[in-house]
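Fold this complex.
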Amino acid sequence: MIDAFVEGGRSIVQACHLVILVPVAAMVLAARARWQVMVGAVVGIVVGGWLFATRWLVLDQAQIRWSGLLVGALAVAVVVPALPRWFEGASSLGDTAAIRTLGQPWVGASLTALVAIVVTAWWRPCVGEHLGTILSRAPDEPFAQLPAMVGFMLGISVPLVAIGLLVRVLEPGRRSLDLTSYAAAGLGVLSAVAVVAGRQADIVARLFEWSQ
Amino acid sequence: MNAQRLAALGGLGLVVALVVGLIATNGDDDTPATEATIADSASPAEPGSDSAVSEPTDTDSTETNSIDSDSADPDSAGAESTDTDPVATEPTDAALSDPNVPDLPDRGTHLPLLEIDGWLQSDVESLEELRGKVVAVQFWTFGCVNCRNTMQQNVALYEKYGGDDFEIVGIHAPEFDFERDPDRILESAAEQNITWPIVLDTEKRTFHSWQEGRRGFWPRVYLLDRDGNVRYDRIGEYGDSGFEELDAAVGALIAGA
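Structure:
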């Protein structure tokens, strides 16, 4: 489990995990990095990774596009209602239905966990030694590989936890936090558009190439 | 500073220390344990032509278009297996009793090579021609870092077992457009001491058909026994323990496991 965690932690410099981290980071930021939401994000990534490895959750191309539409719609629901207020120069943009919903700790946590599970099904991992072993064996021995998979997914969740903690430490002003939330949600929208357009793999592949 | 902010600050400090630690130690164990076994000069066990791209043969075309072909049908595949004349090898106790030998269940005959674009570095033009040898079929693409990290170990395996009993076939399934160029594939192969036959799976049809579950991984290696049955597969880099397992599996299959 420790080895897998280390491999996951080291692999954060690769672009392969962005497809998971960008939308989930957007959720965490949109929910103002509440503790419960951060926990929901990490739990969702871990559960999603395990479902991925065991092949209990495999989406075909059509399902991936539908799930992209859903995640995109969620991100749009966060961004769009705030835009008129942004142009009016409002000091706070956060008072939208979507933000209020995410702001309810356990609702936000559950929704974030769900999104994390869905986006993990879009994942195209770079497969090192330990993840390779997990992916090779998990379909036949799912529970034996669970600790290692938990370790690996916790490793790739490190940036997410860091972002959440940074927000909590810096306690940025409401407007700054709003801006960050909406920028992240915008990235979530772009990510979803890429998935719906079937270009997500190409984008991840290009990012991976640049990251080398 | 309130307690929550203090806790977050402490947590962030731990995370930063963790990340710095991970990055600082990255690469410390990159040298595979097998490196010492690799000879200075890579001499192929069965050198093929270096540059010519073999056109797909009728066999390949048949494989492509026949869903009900011998290879795709487990029953007829079994019949086909009986037609082959595997090289008789006495089981080697040492190879069979190696504790690293994984389970090697018979998963049936390998799937066909679908609509491939030819072979590189090979006089062989179909997997059927390799019956009688244990074959490691690896899906790779030359731009894939995880694939590159397996190549030294593949070279070691080829030098150890290559010959009448063992062959490696690299099925090159490009991820990017620039990886579709056969000249660049050959250039990369030369850089990495890849001397075994390479199959061009430019449209990734074989890549996707062999890897069930609508997911394809680079790298992924399948071991075929002398009758062409799939006995083992592994996703990703080998690392030390994975390579020991692969090495032991090849040895056991050659010995008749």
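Chain B touches chain A through 35 residues (CB under 8 Å).
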